[in-house]
Design brief:
alpha/beta; Rossmann fold; two-stranded parallel sheet; 5 helices; Universal_stress_UspA; UspA
């Protein structure tokens, strides 16, 4: 199978940087088109009327964070002809799969936060969910990968 469209799912963590590095390197070697996806996670929206934090201002801040993170990755990993940017809002595990399907990705690249124990039981693992439900190959970079 030839990977022509690689979707790299990122956030602002060090684990994502490792995944982005691997995804961009693979994309460069294969001369693939890259899509970088940062899901604006609805569960991180904070509203506090006493401090003047509205739902709209919270969404705007999270979107800016997503756009800035994608900008940084693109600057760090130049040499790719075309990079598509995705900053949808939603729950990451579902949005990653939806965007991969809509964009017709051949491969999803993402990092793992290596949750274990109670944390994993309570919050689940985005990477695990994507692996179990994806219709295309998923490359997951482990927490310790350099």
């Amino acid at each position: 199978m030839k990977y022509k469209r690689i979707l790299i799912a990122v956030d602002d963590s060090a684990h994502s940087m490792k995944a982005a590095r691997a995804g961009f390197a693979l994309g460069h070697c294969l001369k693939a088109v890259i899509g970088v996806l940062y899901v604006v996670n609805k569960s991180k929206e904070v509203v506090n009327p006493d401090l003047g934090i509205t739902l709209e201002s919270s969404k705007s801040l999270l979107l800016r964070e997503a756009e800035n993170t994608i900008d940084q990755y693109i600057k760090m990993f130049d040499g790719i002809e075309k990079v598509f940017r995705f900053t949808p809002e939603g729950l990451p595990e579902h949005v990653i799969l939806d965007i991969a399907k809509e964009w017709r990705a051949d491969l999803i690249v993402m990092g793992t936060h290596a949750k274990s124990g109670l944390s994993r039981i309570l919050t689940g693992s985005v990477a695990e969910y994507v692996i179990r439900h994806a219709e295309i190959p998923v490359m997951v970079t482990p927490q310790g990968m350099l």
